């Protein structure tokens, strides 16, 4: 075995941009240039004035176009990321009892938030082992179904289909934090399709966005009219009323809004979801083909249809220390390909969000091939 302390990957193999993290994700140079240009006109200005409000409106219109939102659906945003939205849903969208599909760390967190709420009944929970897929099933005594489009911790991708027996009074809440913008979706199959901006939208965290159906808005208004105590920060109707004014309850991260607006515009100008999903299919496909060609590697998600287009998880043979591979990669400028820490697997986790160029994935593969050959 070579002395890994001295391993320097040939520069001719390295990707132009070595960021392959599952969130926060890489930001395109054009986004950073736009941020610089806006430094004196938007940054450091009031979020209640036109400069920032126009920015929010630009994002809301862009997301409506990107997802081809059905008539009546609205783009709502609020302070805090997906974690804040889980508590918002528990406070403002779940009437009595919800069903949760948990296929990893993040889908489990929403179920735990619902279970902890004193005003709700214990949720129904459908669980599967990490790396496998489970789907919601019709259940008469729940008023909301909750599941994830893409489980970031494991790289499992779910089809977005309203449960066959779901009634008009049962909401479908889809956590799309790492799926939105990089995976195909029919928004009409959901009532709330929510996400944070630090994955496919190549921005920072601290905000949540949601495409919401008339039924979801009606539910929130119904609950808000009861005697349930809802903190203002977790009030969906408060977020809705502010969004309709192109603003947020509290001061938003303006830099995040700028980065996201540029990314949404880039997506739409290049063909919308048809463009982004074709790109993520290509880049993830390169990784899948690579793994299948090396005996030391195995795709963690064994069911091909459940393999994510935006997060690929790869198990390494026990004879190879994944931590050593990622250490060498990081020393050579290839960063954030470590596995999700709580899984505790000898694994790589590689994100291929829309900002990741296919040529960089090809270079990543060449670089990792070189490292694995040196360590063999």
Automatic annotation (TrEMBL):
Cofactor binding remark: Binds 1 pyridoxal phosphate per subunit.
Residue list for modification N6-(pyridoxal phosphate)lysine: 199
Listed transmembrane segments: none
Domain called Aminotransferase class V: residue spans: 142-334
Metabolic or biological pathway: Amino-acid biosynthesis; L-serine biosynthesis; L-serine from 3-phospho-D-glycerate: step 2/3; Cofactor biosynthesis; pyridoxine 5'-phosphate biosynthesis; pyridoxine 5'-phosphate from D-erythrose 4-phosphate: step 3/5
Entry keyword set: Amino-acid biosynthesis, Aminotransferase, Cytoplasm, Pyridoxal phosphate, Pyridoxine biosynthesis, Serine biosynthesis, Transferase
GO MF annotation list: alanine-glyoxylate transaminase activity; L-serine-pyruvate transaminase activity; O-phospho-L-serine:2-oxoglutarate aminotransferase activity; pyridoxal phosphate binding
Skewed-composition ranges (Polar residues): 1-14
EC number per UniProt: 2.6.1.52
Subunit and partners: Homodimer.
Function comment: Catalyzes the reversible conversion of 3-phosphohydroxypyruvate to phosphoserine and of 3-hydroxy-2-oxo-4-phosphonooxybutanoate to phosphohydroxythreonine.
Protein name in the entry: Phosphoserine aminotransferase
Taxonomic path: Bacteria, Bacillati, Actinomycetota, Actinomycetes, Micrococcales
């Amino acid at each position: 075995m070579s002395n890994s302390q001295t391993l320097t990957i040939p520069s001719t193999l390295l990707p132009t941009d070595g960021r392959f993290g599952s969130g926060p994700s890489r930001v395109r140079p054009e986004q950073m240039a736009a941020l610089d240009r806006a430094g004196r006109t938007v940054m450091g200005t009031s979020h209640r004035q036109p400069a920032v409000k126009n920015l929010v409106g630009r994002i809301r219109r862009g997301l409506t176009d990107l997802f081809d939102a059905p008539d009546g659906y609205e783009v709502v945003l609020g302070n805090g990321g997906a974690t804040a939205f889980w508590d918002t849903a528990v406070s403002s969208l779940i009437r009595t009892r919800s069903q949760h599909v948990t296929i990893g760390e993040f889908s489990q967190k929403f179920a735990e938030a619902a279970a902890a709420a004193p005003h709700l009944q214990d949720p129904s929970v459908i669980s599967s082992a990490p790396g496998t897929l489970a789907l919601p099933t019709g259940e008469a005594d729940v008023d909301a179904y909750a599941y994830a489009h893409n489980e970031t911790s494991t790289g499992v991708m779910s089809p977005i289909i309203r449960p066959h027996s779901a009634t008009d009074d049962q909401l479908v809440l889809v956590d799309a934090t790492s799926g939105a913008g990089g995976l195909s979706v029919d928004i009409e199959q959901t009532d709330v399709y929510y996400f944070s901006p630090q994955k496919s939208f190549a921005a920072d965290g601290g905000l949540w966005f949601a495409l919401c159906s008339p039924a979801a808005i009606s539910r929130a208004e119904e609950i808000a009219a009861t005697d349930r105590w809802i903190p203002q920060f977790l009030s969906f109707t408060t977020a809705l009323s502010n969004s309709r004014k192109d603003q947020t309850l509290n001061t938003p991260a303006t830099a995040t809004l700028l980065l996201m607006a540029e990314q949404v515009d880039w997506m739409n100008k290049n063909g919308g979801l048809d463009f982004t999903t074709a790109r993520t299919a290509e880049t993830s496909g390169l990784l899948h083909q690579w793994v299948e060609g090396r005996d030391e590697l195995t795709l963690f998600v064994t069911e091909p249809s459940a393999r994510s287009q935006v997060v690929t998880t790869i198990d390494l043979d026990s004879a190879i220390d994944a931590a050593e591979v990622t250490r060498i990669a990081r020393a050579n400028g290839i960063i954030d390909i470590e596995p999700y820490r709580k899984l505790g697997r000898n694994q790589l986790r590689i994100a291929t969000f829309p900002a990741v160029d296919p040529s960089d994935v090809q270079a990543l593969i060449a670089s990792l091939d070189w490292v694995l050959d040196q360590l063999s």
